[in-house]
Specification:
Shape: globular
CATH topology of one domain: Rossmann fold
Low-confidence stretches: none
CATH superfamily of one domain: HAD superfamily/HAD-like
Oligomer: single chain
Largest sheet: 7 strands, mixed
Strand content: 15-25%
Radius of gyration: 17 Å
CATH class of one domain: Alpha Beta
Length: about 200
């Protein structure tokens, strides 16, 4: 086994977009807003936390709602197969406390993400980003300790991590991103992505 680590984005790749799925599940349509609508992540997150407070939703209720969300069909089998071939880390901008219920359904893979600040009564009072540019910073750190990284993701914030490694792939991305980055191979099915990852790690 070579010294490879596959770095996967979470939302859109293995699970649905958590906030959008949560908005549907909780019946709060305003929560479907994403960084496409509000590019300032800080503003967006504080706005979201305000809405949760308004609706009296603490961490416990949120986790119960997230527990009803399932991984994308085929995601767990894909991950199981991949973990048999190589090391896998999920690198996401979500929060440990939100990802928990989904990680359980994916067989507890390793995830590097951010964390929420929660008051004793369960109110979410804020959040803490692990590092700046978490995806790129993380793959660079992995490379610095002797790993070759191979990455896959679907979104703008995955591009740096995809381009920084030995190989990188777009998965179920937007038409616009695929058009803007024609040099990055793009796949739509887990089968195709698994084949590409297999080849990249030399199996």
């Amino acid at each position: 086994m070579g010294m490879h680590i596959v770095c996967l984005d979470l939302e859109g790749v293995l699970v649905p977009e958590i906030w959008i799925a949560f908005a549907k599940e909780s019946g709060i349509p305003e929560l479907t807003r994403t960084t496409r609508d509000e590019p300032d992540y800080d503003k967006l997150m504080n706005w979201r936390l305000g809405i949760l407070r308004e609706h009296g939703l603490g961490l416990k209720q949120i986790q119960e709602t997230i527990a009803k969300i399932d991984p994308l069909p085929g995601a767990k089998a894909f991950l199981d197969e991949l973990k048999r071939m190589t090391q896998v880390i999920i690198i996401s901008d979500t929060f440990t406390q939100f990802a928990g219920p989904l990680m359980e359904k994916l067989g507890w893979p390793t995830i590097f993400c951010n964390s929420l600040e929660v008051a004793p009564d369960g109110e979410i009072t804020g959040y803490k980003m692990r590092v700046r540019d978490s995806k790129l910073t993380t793959v660079k750190a992995l490379q610095s300790i002797g790993y070759e990284t191979i990455a896959a993701g679907d979104s703008h914030n995955d591009l740096a991590m995809i381009q920084a490694g030995k190989a990188g792939f777009l998965f179920r991305s937007t038409e616009q991103i695929k058009k803007d980055y024609p040099e990055i191979p793009a796949y739509e099915t887990y089968e195709e992505l698994l084949g590409a990852l297999k080849e990249a790690i030399g199996q």
